User: What shape does this take?
Amino acid sequence: MKQYLFIAFLLFSGFLFGQETKYDKYNWNTTPEVLKNDTVNPVNGVKFTFERRIKEVYLNKDNIFEEINVFHRRIKVETNNAIDNFNKIYVPVNNVIAILNIKARFISSSGKITELAQENIKEVKNLENKGDYKIFAIEGTEIGGEIEYFYTLRARFNAFQSIRMQGEEPRMNVEVIFTFPSKLDYLIKSYNGFPDFTTQRDDKTGITFMQAKTDYIPALAEEKYTNYKANLMRYEYTMAYNLYNSVLRVYSWSKVSNNVYNNLYQLSKSEPTAINDLAKKLEIKSGNSEQKIRAVENWIKTEISISDAITKTPALDEIIENKQTSKYGATRLFVALLTNLNIPFELVLTCDRTERKFDPDFNCWNFLDDYLIYFPEIDQFIVPDDPKIRLGVNAFNYQGEYGLFLHPIKYNEKLGSMAYEIKELPVLPISKSIDSLLVKVTCNFNQLKTEMVIHREMSGALGYSFQSFWESIDEERHKEMISEVFDMGDKNTNIQSYKVINGSRINIGVRPIIFDVNLTANSLVESAGNDFIINIGKTIGTQTEMYQTSKRKLPIDIEFVHSFYRKIEFNIPKGYKVSNLEEINMRAEMVENEKVSAYFKSWYEQIGNTIYIYSREVYPELEYPVSSFNEFREVINASADFNKKKLIITPL
Amino acid sequence: MILRRFSIPDYLFILLLILVIFGEVNGQGLKDFERYSQKYPNNAVILTSLKQELVIEMNDGKPVLNLSEYKEYLALNDNAIFFADSKEKFGAIYKFKDIEAYSLIPAKGGYKKIPVTNFNKTTEVSNALFFDDVIDYNYTFPSVVKGVKMISKFHMSSDDPSFPHKFYFGNYFPGDEYIFTVTCPKNVEMKYKIFGRDTSIVNFSMLVKAGKKIYTWHTSNPKSYIKDDYAPDADYYIPHVIVQVSKYNYKGKTTCINNSLDDLYKIEYKRISNINISESNEIKALTDSLTKGITLNKEKVRKIYSWVQKNIKYVAFEDGENGYVPREASLVIRRKYGDCKDKTSLLVAMLKSQGLKASYSWIGTRDIPYKFSDFATSFNFNHMIAVWWDDNNNSVILDGTTHHHPLEDIPSFIQGKECLIENGPDNYKVYTIPVASPLKNTVYDSLTVELKGDTLVGNGVSIINGELRSYMLDSFEGKDLTDLPGIVNKLMPKASNKFIIKSVNPIVTTDEDTILKYDYKFYLPDYLTTNHNVAYLNLNLDRFMAGTNLKDDRWIPVELNNTKIHIFVCTFKIPKGYEVRDIPKNSSYDNKLFGFNHSYKINSHEIKVKTIVTLNFQVIEDNEMAQFREMLGQLYSNYIKTIPIYKTVTQ
Assistant: This one.
């Protein structure tokens, strides 16, 4: 999406002609490495012993900004798997004007060097739609040695970028160098513990040199219930001033507003009529805003194919006529239709919080990846270019994330712009996403089988996860899904019949999906001499567990707030009694700021020969700090423990 | 392990076809829609027609191949937009000529045609490969709403008549119409064969018209083909036909292309005949040092094989015709990487440098259901291995893509397959690789358990050989001791996910090819159920195959990665002051392909349960599958038997 907002930044100035660059001839020994810290243990047989990234911004002969990018890495490989994972190198060459150098070698533990022959570098065109790559495999590898490679690329200018500096392997001797003419100024910010940059200005050469260095970046493994990528060390940079041109701030939020207005709100000649006609055709003048929004969204997302394959965005009249558009075109169509129908909305630019957290204190374009449309009247938002989702479930990867909210201000009929505000996107209330499960259990002790009648309703974000695709798949796959969702252990569950209500996409955020299922489970009753054991906990299905106790490193994120309610009804067969009902009573809760936050509790009641077992599991907050992990784990594990609950049935 | 993929067609579910004049604007639209909706009430999308035409023409005295496809999908509800994104793949064999796609949207009196305007060309690299020459054309059908037809067409051609072609009569979606035609001049002869299950649904006819032979296969197949657990490759069950040019006559001279296995061998032999002509000094020096002091040929081979397994990394570059030609051994040894052909090239050169007799051999992995001896086609193989002819001139298989398989163990993914072994320009041998006895893949896991309060604690010992050993050795490599409990728990899961392994202690031996052995300590809370004077304990802590539920209506065959014997022993020490009054009955199931033996033993201080499960097949279907389901049912019911343990009266 960014390409539409951010037109290539060209400079026009009369007196400079092609600045000299320092790093275009970078080689193995351009900057001698002083390697420190060889005490680090490899992780999975790997450690990066050296990593250097250089970005040098300069003016080319035509007075256009360009950059030299150097990437240099050395990897110590101590297992065969490590070699297999790191011996294939992909060099992205999109936006590259010239490849100045690609070099690779293997240095064995005995010091033998095998250089990569240049003819073994291959080109791949548009690899899986991620652009062109140069690829090669490291030659002469053996355990205990080091893979080393660097590449120097002359590339088109990038005014801002986000770069992750951490991964699943430890890194040592990490250095980032960023240089540019001192007439430019950049903002650079480090996150998640990556060191801050230092700045030196050389008045003689007029070059600014920024640098961040560290001897050691620890390996970070993936963990459950967290946004792994968003927690990795990284830095963000943006050009802030270009004194060749003016003293005003560039690439700021206020600058975005004009671009958005011109590109997204302004219609070309042929467009207004097409939008008018469409609005009339849709006949959605009546109803409240919510109904209107839903009608617009359903029409666009059903009738129009929104495609990544379309690289050039057609005009709105063409989109309506040809029923296909790029993602950006879908956003424009929403903006035009909603404006035409006088539905109040704000356009939001933000980023996926599972990837990065929007920093409200860093005025830049870095976090403006995706478009959302926010409706202040109902405090909800939609994702205009994702046909799977609908109003009412607030896509979880944006909930609670900051965003740049824009709304148009009109100076007169022709002249307009956008006002902006940094705000948080709404979190879908917990009452909207509920999973309730009602199970009636009847045991057949002779055959050790259990019959179950199940009624389950899933609303909001929970329902959406099924409604987004349910009616796109056929019967065979429905059966398969039902078997999986209602598996009561060991996949030994046979579905006798099922019925699904509200499965289609138009129900997303409006009505819960409802499953009525009859099944037979083979795993619930165990014989034990004259007694029987009923694995009653298995009726709620296998639960996520966190029984392993390795030290938690990352904060907790639960995707979206939600809750479970479960009621299990069980008739004690004649001539038998249940002797350990008190086992059912469980409670685990976490207290945040002196208030109960997430919890799990289960209890029972007995009426005559019928036992009712209830449980409630609630996750009311999106995020918790890592310090709350143990309490959180107890709640998660409580439901996994409940899953193991057994009732003992003995003859009277 | 991939030698190379052949042209476009063998991508599952991406099926190809012909041009047929299509009534784009007629009044049939709505009627069609109603008919299909009634016929397929539970589908969002169906394949209404897939037509492919292969036309063979003579050009400069040689047959050339032209392939065209017409494919039509119909959206039956408003949730079909998922299927708007589409792509076609083109490989190196057939040259891409053109592609067209459009939607037909119901309009007054017929349909309105809206063309796809953008085709986004990308390179796709499959997981097993590093570099691939397959190009995708990605596109999106406009407006995929109820009643809309999605149509795609393409053409491609090949000047090389030696490559076979495959057409599938089945798809991910129900297919209402499949038509495949082959048209060729009278002087060209074709060979073909139908494979898969349900092949009787395919109708075939051949007619001669205007001096041309026209072969037609057609059918309607409402089945929706999806993969199931333990399913073999779709080529085992989707009905499909393979066709190839067998020979042609030009000006009185007959040229054989793919008429017999001899012809296929000639083509393939040519590809290997020009490599490793001269001996490499580097290789000789290496093998001399590796085999120094070894007198037995077999031990020399073992040393060389193991060196290649350990030192040559698997990296596969697929690049047109190069995909079939092994690289020079001297290059492979310098790079220290290669694909299966390159590793074979090196193995053969290394063996020959020691005066050992060695050959290249083509083979299909078990994904491929065909046999050289049944239908000679290059679709038979996708892999290459080396063969050492031992002192008695028996063929010994060396698969350089393995890491830990000893010389005696052939990897399971080529067991039971025929390989075509090169033996000079005019000689070859077809050899069927034996399927390993289950004993070769024995997993033995034994626990000793006692009670500490309500928690089970104990020690285990595992002894593993064969395929799982190789896999575990790969997983253990370079890991800290503290990582091992997680790995063992994942690969050898127990009945409760609360089974916590505290430590794993591998028993290290110097002999690389020996069985894998480790012992471990564990505890298991919340497993025992107690009630006043009784504790209930299920000793089946390992429930091998418990998660395998073959549904009653399953028709897709069942495939195992390898034959195996799984032995589990659990010895429970009866705590003081407790007694066991009764134990479950022993039971067993016996059949030549699979079986189990489940037994309990008890004495005054311990109970021992032992489960032995034997699986001795690769693929089963129909009756055998029904019996297997029955066996699994019995096995499972054994697993859910719990033993009550009573406090003795004196307590």
Observations:
- The longest helix of chain A spans residues 289-303.
- The mean pLDDT of chain A is 91.
